[in-house]
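Title: Prediction job returns without error message
Component: structure pipeline
Severity: low
Priority: P3
Assignee: unassigned

Description:
Job completed but the reporter wants confirmation the result is attached to the right record. Sequence as submitted:
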Amino acid sequence: MKDREKVTAEDAEGPDTRARILAAAAELIASGGPDAATTRAVAAAAGVQAPTLYRLFGDKHGLLSAVVEHELTSYVAKKAARKPHPDPLQDLRMGWDMHVAFGLSHPGLFALMCSDLEPAPQPSVVGTGNEVLRRRIRNIALAGRLRVSEERALGLVSSMCNGAVLTLLRQPEGQRDLGLSEAARETVMAAISSETAPPANTEVRSAATTLRASLDRLTVLTPGESALLSELLARITDAG
């Protein structure tokens, strides 16, 4: 009898139950924000007992982290599957707009994504999202149109785009200045790309950026030489 009860308990806490709990939590967050996803409310919505939730996720923080990881995995997969635009700058613009649209349509989830969750979502999930953005920036560099280092471009795009979303979410839904995102986007594009009027030495900096983006294709340098050259090129690229 005890063995049968054990099997039944394990079945009740299988993948389907976990998915049902995550879906219930995501729906509560969407309708009422993160505070609405209490363990009691999630358990009731998912049709499970609270101990099941605790055994699967540990506590509320573990549950929220799992929800973010689950939703982020789905979102990143859609970003990665999108066919890139032939113009790398336009492709980055499209990625920016997609991120803003996601944030505005998932305000509670986006707030959690930008918070310091403990435990944090799996680094592999976050890393995959960053890799999609890094790939778009790398394409700009390979086209000879990036005038700052890839690392600086990544930081600027990520921080400014997330900041634009958070600012818009603080505005009343019917009074949001959607032009703010476009203005922020174009400010970043002007700062990282050579699409607009170039500053002094832009040809040198653009060439350094392009060469640095192509280092992994070179076979004549040792790993140490490649690392040193990469560091020197980054300093040239980011020089004011």
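Comment from assignee: result matches the submitted record. The first helix runs from residue 2 to 12.
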